[in-house]
Write a structure and sequence with these properties.
Number of helices: 14
Strand order of the largest sheet: 8-7-9-6-10-11-12-13-14-15
CATH architecture of the largest domain: 3-Layer(aba) Sandwich
Largest sheet: 10 strands, mixed
Shape: globular
Distance between the termini: 55 Å
């Protein structure tokens, strides 16, 4: 079959395009962004064409899918409609692919990418697996039995999914541009959970996760003794995190992971539970976890002289808080500086106070202007980064042109956070601290 992906450089769409190609389909795509994005690496490796002008021909039997960042009045959306092409939602196509395999759907407000990547690592190095991970990583082979799928709640995408196994890492208020309130969010997760065919592995420490009325078998994991899988004896060290895992009150094993923060330990516990259910031995799981490397833009570190640069996708206040706590775990004696790129006007408005609280962990916080491609600023009057920065004791605005504000941070840990691209900011920062050397 032939597929045309509009917004093909988006993390989800890029991943979908790669999987469609791997399954033997002919794939091409369109994007407005001509500059290089890390998500196109897999596309280029597969020689998937990316168009920018909207003037190339498209065969009439092509199925079109699109990113929600592209509205109906976009010129390329108009063109494919005028051509009479079949258009399917991204999540519908994903649902079709999921049904071809024994799938593991990883959901949750936070932790989806890392947990998906952990399971991928465990399966890929043992029995083999396909995977769809929102960091722009996708791969599929028809002969593989298992398919690891990062299952996003945005726009209720995952309600089109019917995996064999699922994980719910947590449920928290998020994407309030799509949901009425926390009850609406939880009810949507309940739909996903009860569309799971065999087993749900759920974070029993999370109040909203516990409120779900599960019709599918469920195993709860967490730090609380009331869970089926209990994390004990955790130590958060400068070299990583260690912990013991108990299953149904019996010691299962000790694990060492090169990850930082209690939230990462919880993610690992979920991945271990799934791996055990799929037949992997404890010793194999233990040894593989020690060699794990996280996905793109998840606590990605680079050392430049005495400065540590961290690139992380964190964009929700909870994610920011646990990421900064993890930095403090690994670098307790270094000054911590944050450069944050807010991504949507609605999230900035809805979580203003929570953002302010999360940044208190840092010694200094800089925010750029809001970088958003799916909301219009005129719909959110008076919502700018200043509603956060102006309330921070150590806050300031920053841009690509004012990165010299960081010229004295040559010995600090500088975290670049946000789901919008930050690579240009990082490159400019490197040039600033390298000046005169």
């Amino acid at each position: 079959m032939k597929y045309y992906c509009i917004g093909i450089k988006g993390t989800g769409m890029s991943t979908l395009a790669q999987i469609l190609y791997d399954l033997g389909n002919e794939v091409s795509g369109y994007d407005d962004a001509k500059e290089y994005k890390f998500t196109q690496k897999g596309l280029e490796e597969r020689n998937i064409p990316i168009y920018y002008d909207g003037e190339h021909p498209i065969d009439k039997d092509t199925i079109v899918t699109y990113s929600v960042a592209f509205k109906e009045d976009h010129k390329e959306m108009k063109r494919v409609k005028e051509l009479g092409l079949k258009i399917k939602k991204y999540s519908e196509i994903m649902g079709d692919i999921i049904d071809l395999f024994e799938s593991i759907g990883v959901s949750g407000t936070h932790g989806k990418t890392t947990t998906s990547s952990l399971i991928r690592h465990l399966l890929e190095n043992t029995v083999g697996c396909n995977y769809f991970i929102g960091a722009g990583d996708g791969y599929a082979k028809k002969d593989n039995k298992y398919f690891v799928v990062e299952s996003d709640e945005f726009n209720r995408h995952f309600t089109d999914y019917h995996p064999a196994y699922s994980i719910i890492t947590n449920i928290e208020a998020e994407h309030l541009e799509c949901y009425k309130d926390i009850d609406d969010i939880r009810n949507t997760f309940e739909i996903f959970a009860n569309q799971t065919k065999k087993l749900v592995v759920a974070n029993g420490d999370n109040e909203e996760v516990r409120k779900i009325n599960y019709k599918t078998k469920v195993l709860f994991y967490g730090f609380n003794d009331k869970n089926d899988i209990v994390i004990k004896n955790m130590e958060l060290l400068e070299t990583g995190s260690v912990f013991d895992l108990y299953m149904n009150n019996e010691f299962y094993g000790h694990f060492d992971i090169p990850l930082y923060g209690s939230h990462m330990v919880a993610n690992a516990a979920a991945a271990i539970t799934i791996a055990k259910e799929l037949g992997l031995k404890q010793e194999t799981i233990h040894n593989l976890l020690e060699t794990f490397h996280n996905a793109k833009r998840r606590f990605a570190e680079e050392k430049v002289g005495d400065c540590i640069i961290i690139d992380d996708y964190a964009h929700h206040p909870t994610e920011i808080k646990v990421t900064l706590e993890a930095v403090k775990q690994k670098y307790p004696n270094k000054r911590l500086v944050v450069v944050f790129v807010p991504n949507t006007y609605s999230r900035t408005r809805d979580f203003k106070d929570e953002f302010i609280d999360s940044f208190k962990i840092a010694d200094k916080t800089y925010l750029t202007e809001i970088d958003c491609n799916r909301e219009r600023p005129e719909d959110y009057p008076k919502i700018t980064s200043h509603i956060i920065v102006d309330k921070l004791a150590s806050g300031d605005m920053i841009s690509l042109d004012t990165m010299d504000k960081l010229k004295n941070e040559k010995s600090s840990v500088v975290c670049f956070l946000g789901c919008a691209p930050v690579d240009k900011l990082i490159d400019k920062f490197k040039s600033v601290i390298n000046q005169g050397e």
